[in-house]
Each structure stands twice: as C-alpha cells, then as structure tokens.
Amino acid sequence: MTKEQRFQGVYDAVIVGGGHNGLVAAAYLARAGRSVLVLERLGHTGGAAVSTRPFTGVDARLSRYSYLVSLLPSKIVRELGLEFAVRERTVSSYTPTARSGRPGGLLVGGGEARTRASFARLTGSEREYERWRAFYATTGRLARRVFPTLTEPLPDRAALRARIDDEAAWRMLFEEPLGRAVEERFADDLVRGVVLTDALIGTFADAHDPSLAQNRCFLYHVIGGGTGDWNVPVGGMGALTDALAAAARGAGAEIVTGHEALRIDVDADSAVSGPVEVTYRTDRGEGRVGARKVLVNASPRELSRLLGETPPPAPEGAQLKVNMLLRRLPRLRDTSVDPREAFAGTFHIGEGYEQLARAYAEAATGELPTAPPSESYCHSLTDPTILGADLVAGGYQTLTLFGLHTPARLFEKDNRGTREALLAATLAQLDAHLAEPLADCLALDADGRPCVEAKTPLDLERELGLPGGHIFHQDLSWPYAERGAGRWGVETRHPDVLLCGAGAVRGGGVSGVPGHNAAMAVLGR
C-alpha cells in the first residue's frame, strides 16, 4: 500500500511537526479515540528534543539541542503513562571568580549550610544569602500558584493577578524591568549576575529592557514544576520524545517521517478532504490529506507561510550551543570546590551583572562580546547512562555549554568564521578559571578530531527550522490572555487550525504544554 493511498480519507486531526509538543497532542487525541496523523519533515521525530551520537565512532548519546527539563508537568507524564524520568542535580550552580588576585566562587547547592558558607566567603557576610533566600522564597510562592495554570484554560490578567495575591511579587515580575528588583535586593555584582542569567536564556535583552522580554524569560525559568528546579532527563532528551512517540503510536496515532507540509487549505470543505486539507511533499512527490482539525507544531511564522498569509515580524535567536566530550573533567583554579560538584550544576562563566550588561551592549552594536558569557553543565555526572560502558569506566564526561548574547545578526556575513571565533573566545573565558586548558581534556573521535561541536542561531534555523534560530520560536508571552489569545492560547483566526508549538501562549522550553492545550481545545475540555 502506498503512502498516498494510506492517507485517503479524513483524519480527525493532522499534526504538522513531530517535535515533543506535536507528539503530546497526538498522544492525548489518540487516547481520546480520535484518528490522528503526524507529518514530520525530518527523518526522525523529536525536533529539538533529541539525543544523537554527534562524534564519529564515539558511544556518547548527547542531548544535541535542548538539554534540561523544568517546565514539563508531571501531569502530562502521568496521564500519558510515559516511561520517562528525570533526576535532580545535587548542585544548582557554581560561579567562579577571582578577587584580590585569589580564585574563588559561589556555590549554590549541597545543602543550606554549604550555600550559606559560600555566600559568606564571597561577600564577607551572610546578608546577601538572606536576601537570596527571601527573593527565591517569593519566586517559589509565585511558582506554586502560576505553574498549575499552564495546563488550565488561559486566565486573563486580572484572574492571574488575583491568584498570585502578592502585590510586590506581581509588580517585580509583571510590571517593572527585572533589573530594578535585582539591583534593589542584591549588592554583590556576581550574585546579581547569577540571578539575572535566568532572564537571558535564549532571550536577547538588557536587565532594564522596557519590553520586559527578560521578565517573561525569567518567569518561565523559575516557575517550572512549581519549584523552578531544572532537572536532568534520564537517557537524554531523546528519551522523552521516544516515550512520547511510543505513547502516541500505542494509542493508535500514525506518525510518518520524511513528510514536509507545504500548504494548509482551510477552504477545502469537501466530503473527500474534510474542512482542512494539508499538502505535503516526500521524496516520491506531493500528496494531500484531509483533516477536521490541523495542529501546527511549528513557529507562528511557519504557520503563516503554510496558510499563505503575511508572516509576523521575524524573531532573532541569540545563543551558542556547544556539545563536548571530555576524557576527564578539568581541574579548577578554585581548589575549594571539586570539579564534580562545580560541573554537576550550572557552571557560570562571564556572567557577573556588569559583564552581562557589557556583552549585551557590544552585541547590540553588531560586535561579538569581548568576554562572551556562557554556562555549562555535565549531564553524565547525574546520568551516566548516556555514555557507553567503556567511556564510563574510563572516566569520560560530557560537557554542554550555552552561550548568551550572540544574536543571529552577528553570524549573517560569515556564519562559519564567526562561529569559530566565538567558540574560541568562549572557551578562553572558561579556561581563565581552570587549572589546565580545556583542550587538554577533550576526547578525540575515531578520526582523531576533538569531540566538540557548536551551533549558532543560523545553524538551528537551517537544521530545525527555528525562525532566526530562536529557541522559543518567538519572544515568550505572558501566561495570561491578551487580545485574541483564545480559551487555551493555541487558537488561530481559523477555527479548524491550532498552533501547538513553542510560539503558542504559554509555550517555550521543553514543556509539552502547548501540545496538551491544543489537544484540550480540540476535545472541548
């Protein structure tokens, strides 16, 4: 039976894109008895949430793009019966520095006493730690009230504000630039920078940006799971999407790869094609399939292209993603911290408050930051299952690095050359806090090449179809209804077409929330 024959008839739902949100929607709809077809352009499902072996002849299965889990509700894992688990990191973060010519740093984690002592050593008193505790107690209370709403019908602004019921917290995160709260509450530049970094992951903004894009990014980083904890996916990110694909197929959904959606016709409305028709392309040519509903697990710009409409303004990603495999973790200049602790959490580099402001200002003028800020972590310390047995026995470790303030515009003239220059500058910033060069610790692949790969926003646009390389598909939205948002935040002006990707309201990150909400919209729940 040919694929064209197989698709004849009308599906209750055709889902364009087999990333994690599309798979969540497919699983929910199929479990509810709906006929579901997922069309995926690439040769595999998963989108940005995949695990791959990027280094020739090396048995290391890395989370190539997205790499940590915070926003995925346990509700989705439970309701879909996913065989998927996460592990907590023993250390939240370590930020090295040098003061008065002596190496040191700030360790957050390892218990309250350990964290308190680290703050005292860095700042000379416990005052900053007490302010830290008070600040994150506030965000924790807000997280417990906001996170459950992400999988409920979309509240309006007034309803969410009433639910939070904390005027100071609302003003701090929803009305005033985050930089004001950071500067009012903390005095130490390094502490300020550690707080601000959560507002800049995948978001090119200054602490005082009047658009509050940094506030929205910070909000999504501190509400995950109702705790703000960022956890390690056991088996890598691909374990999640493999489990989702299995759940969807097990419930009866059809998933086909190598099928690129070309057009969505909302005026089909025939007995053969249904209310909506999707034209797709394979290596065998073009075909069409009908649907009662079409869910688009892609960006708002891609949705507009599929519909033949004028696209929204182009977004711009601003990150460098680096994957590495090490023969061993490097030794640190700060000998008070074991590298296995420092790299088990988020290892901040060049992320003091003033450093971040300087890097943003330089990038905004079209120049690469002279001291590129970044953060890294070692997945295999928490989850060694992503490495082959020989690598584990040999002491090998992964290292993932995420660079900030590198907007796509910087790479447009020479993506390859700029990528190499930025990677060298970023690793030099890391080397400044190491007792040995990172290059001496890099593993080699089967061809004798160092195990390191870097991805710019333009690389992500080419490989994954992310517009401008933006990891959230566009700037994050507030988690409440604004004009035209609809009941679930996934609706479009076409009643039979829904947006279930990261660009939906309450999208962004590895959450499955847009997929869940689009399925609920279809089911009328």
Descriptive overview:
This protein is α/β, with parallel strands linked by helices and about 525 residues long. The chain is built from 19 helices and 18 strands. Strands 1, 2, 9, 10, 11, 12 and 18 form a 7-stranded mixed sheet that branches. Strands 7-6-14-15-16-13-17 form a 7-stranded mixed sheet, with helices on both faces. Strands 3-4 form a two-stranded antiparallel sheet. The longest helix has 20 residues, at about 125-145. The model is unreliable at about 1-5 (pLDDT under 50).
Share of helix, binned: 25-40%
Estimated structural class: alpha/beta
Number of strands: 18
Q: What is the percentage of strand-forming residues?
A: 15-25%
Shape: globular
Q: Point out poorly predicted stretches.
A: 1-5
Q: Count of helices?
A: 19
Distance between the termini: 36 Å
Query: What is the CA-atom radius of gyration, in angstroms?
Result: 23 Å
Mean pLDDT: 95
Largest sheet: 7 strands, mixed
Put the structure in a nutshell.
With 525 residues, the chain is of the alpha/beta class.
List the helices and strands and how they pair.
Elements lengths: L2 H4 L3 E7 L3 H12 L4 E4 L11 E2 L9 E2 L10 H6 L6 E2 L3 E9 L2 E8 L2 H12 L3 H20 L10 H8 L2 H9 L2 H8 L3 H9 L15 H10 L9 E2 L3 H14 L3 E3 L3 E6 L10 E7 L2 E12 L3 H8 L12 E7 L12 H4 L3 E4 L3 H12 L9 E4 L1 H4 L6 H5 L3 E7 L11 H17 L20 E4 L1 H8 L32 E3 L13 H11 L2
Parallel strand pairs: 1-2, 1-12, 2-9, 6-14, 12-18
Antiparallel strand pairs: 3-4, 5-8, 6-7, 10-11, 11-12, 13-16, 13-17, 14-15, 15-16
